[in-house]
Amino acid sequence: MDTNKTRVRFAPSPTGLLHVGNARTALYNWLVARHAGGKYILRIEDTDVERSKDEHEQQLITDLRWLGLDWDEGPEIGGPYAPYRQSERLDIYREHTERLLNEGKAYRCFCTYDELEAERLRAVAEHRPQVYSGKCRTVSQKDSDARAASGDPFAVRLQIPEGPLRFHDIVRGDVEFASDTVSDPILVRSSGMPVYNYVVAVDDALMEITHVIRGDDHISNTPRQVAIYEAFGWPVPQFAHLSTILGGDRERLSKRHGATSIASFREMGILPEALVNYLALLGWGAKDGVTETFTPKELISEFDLERVTASPAIFDFDKLHWLNRHYLKAADPERVLNLAWPYFEKAGLLPALATADVEIVQWFSKLVALFLPSIDRLEQLPEKAHFVFTLDARATQTNAENAAILQSETAHKVLTAFAQRVRSHDGAVTPEQFKAWMNEIKTETGAKGKDLFHPVRIALTGAHSGREFDKLIPIFEKGARLSLPVHVLSMHERIEQFAIA
Ligand code: GLU
């Protein structure tokens, strides 16, 4: 194979959001193109006028760009095979239909809906496949032309040759369909609108697509498309049909299993590189059988269609979260800060980033760094860090787990000793000061470990476990001095509030 000639396409219908299944198709096509140094084409399949919407196309483009799947030819950038929107290619399809009719490869079908329905019911009654009988094949050219000229409505059908339809699939191997299960497919409806199977084959051929990589829901369409290539005498591309994606219960992945649209993953604070890595693993694996983390660059060099599996892939949210944690850790802190900010702004905890002064930004960057290791998705950050901003002392004390810890005499002693020290201390408490106090209190009360630290942590943070004190304390103390939409409690305020509650 001359790999540079590789031309693949992602051909979404703009009828809704981009979901994981289609995004994986987009990704595998992109990887094949980039691996081969070939071309990646975006083609918008909008012949379903009722359901296709501009806003869906815009959203698709936004989502693909966010994933980093750039294309070389497409509706908004053009290219040598333009236009790339099917609704703008109707003249091309019309010319090709004329050609097939003139060459006798296709014929006009004047059967009405009622006639076809009657035929179908007869087939059901006789336990035959419910396919078109080919009745209009025998209408003479003269009659056909005359009826068309007199305005009789007609569809255009492809004349399928005898014998089975075969194609090779890179994922599934050789596939064969008996021709009597396919019959003569409609290419153009009586409304004049060409059908998906027809336009997809015409476009793939004219755009010189070398590999058709798509979901296996299209596998039964493929023999019809192969027949169309053959009718035109065009070379048939290679096919690769990707397995279905299932939820944990082995049912087809759907909303029921949780978020499945690319937009919703972005809104949750999943990084695109985590999602791309995860999608790549849905039906494909590393050569060494163990590596699971791949940057897009590594994927490009490793990816190989030959290693795509035919068995269904199970979507595992936990694994996606694991990868997201991996990439959040590796990401540039400034990028993470910019991505995290809107969640806090929306929660009313931070001002708009553009209006925030540098001190607030620096303080927030420390807060993000501290809480990042304890989240799967950025959207969880405000909740994790909420106690930094506000703390309900009464709720803290009545929480059953806390109450059990606080009721002991040791806890009481520790907290009294701690409160005394905070109260008699002027200015901000430093982590060093805090450490020194805790050592003193240890000696004074004899409490150590959990008995010493849990009551103090509950008073300061509302829970007995959490992030390191030497990082938390400066965040409290510095935050209390900033002018934020929600006042951050200082160590003093935390202790006062706790004592009163
Ligand atoms: N427009 C089709 C879809 O969204 C694409 C099918 C294909 O790739 O051939 O399912």
The CATH class of the domain at 89-242 is identified as Alpha Beta
CATH superfamily of the domain at 89-242: HUPs
* Count of individual beta strands: 11
Please state how the strands of the largest beta sheet are arranged side by side: 3-4-7
The ligands found in this model are:
glutamic acid
According to CATH, the fold-level topology of the domain at 89-242 is Rossmann fold
- Average residue pLDDT: 96
Distance between the termini: 76 Å
Radius of gyration: 32 Å
- State the helix count: 22
Structural class: mainly alpha
Low-pLDDT residue spans: none
Architecture of the domain at 89-242, according to CATH? Answer: 3-Layer(aba) Sandwich
Which range best describes the helical content: under 10%, 10-25%, 25-40%, 40-55%, 55-70% or over 70%?
Answer: 40-55%
Beta fraction: 5-15%
Major sheet details: 3 strands, antiparallel
General form? elongated
Draw up the topology in text.
Layout: E1 7-10, H1 20-36, E2 39-42, H2 54-67, H3 90-102, E3 106-109, H4 113-125, H5 141-149, E4 155-158, E5 165-169, E6 173-177, E7 186-188, H6 196-206, E8 211-215, H7 222-232, E9 238-242, E10 245-246, H8 262-268, H9 272-280, H10 296-302, E11 313-314, H11 317-330, H12 333-346, H13 358-371, H14 381-384, H15 386-389, H16 393-398, H17 400-406, H18 409-423, H19 431-445, H20 450-461, H21 469-480, H22 491-500
Parallel strand pairs: 1-2, 8-9, 10-11
Antiparallel strand pairs: 3-4, 4-7, 5-6
Helix pairs in contact: 1-10, 6-7, 9-11, 12-13, 13-21, 18-19, 18-20
The structure holds glutamic acid (GLU).
